[in-house]
Amino acid sequence: MPQAYCECIYGLGGSVLDPAGGMATLMAKIKALGVITPNVPWDQANIQAVADAVNKHPADAMVFLIGDSCGANKAPWVAAAVYPRKISYMACIQASVYCQNGCPDIPNNVQQAFVIYSDYVHTGGLGCYIPIRAAGNTVTRYRQAYVAAPHPDDNDVANVQNPILADIKNLLDTHPATVAAAAVSANQPGASKSGSATTGTRSSRKFVRTKRIELLPASLAELEKDVDRIAF
Fold it and tell me: What is the pTM of this model?
């Protein structure tokens, strides 16, 4: 498995305004996939600390950025701040129309971006801003999902957490390091079931041959007796 890090960013107010604990729960699930995470999600008010953390990761490591509410607005800011460092994946959950000031669009060092947004009726503007790719960015694989839900909806397992977890798992599973490790494992002695079946077939063949050899002397003895009877 490749070395991978995930930086999760709280919205305004941190855990106090996220009583359902959605971001912390999502981060724990990402960690369970083998990804390295901080002990708690980052405070969006200290976004430079997130960029500093990303810059300290090994150059060949995968980096994921996940943010909700104002933290979703700040995720592209982090990507821009560490440019040209590659960001393997970014998920923005219900970015706010009130937090976009000073935040850039998604730069082209982000390889894949997933934006989940709601509407003004459900969120009062807190979760209906849609981060887009920066002008001229044709590199980032980008997709959106509209989920009609109150803010911040980061505890929505079916429509928010599971799609993000599926994306991250797919990136980990298809990474060249994972594929190479799987190929090596498949070539290890005893790894192939067909090899076991062949061994079993050969064993049975040996048994049959042995059985035929054991019967041969008995047949000769009977033949000698017949010759003796004929001689008399």
Answer: 0.79
Q: How far apart are CA 200 and CA 155, in angstroms?
A: 52
Number of DSSP helices (H) and strands (E) in the chain, helices first: 7, 5
Cβ–Cβ under 8 Å, residues 119 and 128: yes
Using alpha carbons, select from 51, 44, 88, 50 the residue that is nearest to residue 68: 44
Average pLDDT over residues 88-114: 97
**Residue closest to 26 by CA, chosen among 127, 174, 166, 173:** 166
Which range is least confidently modeled, 166-170, 190-194, 220-224? 220-224
Alpha helices in 103-192 (DSSP H): 120-123, 162-174, 176-186
Residue 105 near residue 80 (C-beta atoms within 8 A): no
Instruction: Strand 112-117: give its sheet, edge to edge.
Output: 4-9, 62-68, 89-93, 112-117, 141-146
Structure-token pair, residue 153: 């909806």
CA-nearest of 164, 153, 145 to 18 is: 153
Q: Where are the beta strands (DSSP E) in 118-218?
A: 141-146
For the chain, the first-to-last Cα distance in angstroms comes to 84
pLDDT higher than 60, residue 104: yes
- DSSP class of residue 83? T
pLDDT tens by residue, 3-38: 999 999 999 877 766 766 799 999 999 999 999 999
